[in-house]
Amino acid sequence: MDTILSQTNPIAGIQADFGAYAEKMKRKDDAHRVNGIPDYSFSMDWRLREQIRKLPCFYALSKRVAVHDEARQRQIKTASALQVGPNQFPEIYEMALDCAKRLGIGPPNVFVQHDQTMNAYTFASDTATPIVVLHSGIVERLTPGELKCVIGHECGHIHNEHSVYMSIVNLIAGALNSGGLGAALAAMLTQATLLLFYEWNRAAEVTCDRAGMICADNLEDAISVNKKLLYGTFLNREDNVNIDDIRSQFSNIAAATSVFTEMANDHPSSIRRVLTSEEFTHCELLYRWRPELLQPGLELRSKEECDKACEKYTAVFKESRKAVG
Ligand SMILES: [Zn+2]
After folding, report:
1. Cα-based torsion angle of the residue sequence 163, 166, 170, 172 in order, rounded to the nearest 10 degrees
2. For residue 317, pLDDT beyond 80
């Protein structure tokens, strides 16, 4: 009976006990945590997350959604994608092991799915091993070093417990696009709440780009991933991208009316991500994780200074106020 039930109901037998997960995380090596938070996390991510957490019933509902989502996606991916391991794509398997070890989390299950879009994403709850999905488009078009940064980014979502919040953001976004009852329920949220979710989601991506850099073999790989998300991969001319020109391009979009479109995006534009990643290469905290990557003569800044600079590139909501004068 239990077997039949677990085949038909992906959440049968699973306990939504995030307290146990939090306790397990707390016991991990605390050398890189400040008040229980990974020390590299973008301050805007945690600040906005606290605001979301205070919404009535939000966290309890989100936990349930994350548990259901993770269990359902595990079944879907097991049926439709290839799980990497020591005998299947062992190099990707090794990358995941290495990134997980570097961040101090358990290794995720990694699936490669046939899909030509350049995408990767994670499902996690406290009830099972997290899942990282890599589209074949990203595996085919990135160098091994760049792919490792993507896997490190996804491990960052697990390390920072983002999935609880991201599951509900995705649910709402899906409901809004679905029409019918789902859209009606999502519409009950105020516009301000939705915009808060998206603003947080964009800040969370900055945190995880930093995780990707901490896991990188070479910091340039992490920046070139975002460059390729900007212009594509077909020419292999990332050396033609000039960071000062990117900054100048950013100054043309900051506080322009186009920020209203960006406010409803769950990821920062790649222009912004190139700049926030470049900023983190100057952060002294990065080299506490990876002292061997520090280049002689590099100008270093504190974590606070780095967060402040990254907020300038990420705070679309603030820019929107400037855009209207
Ligand atoms: Zn991400």
Report:
1. 120
2. no
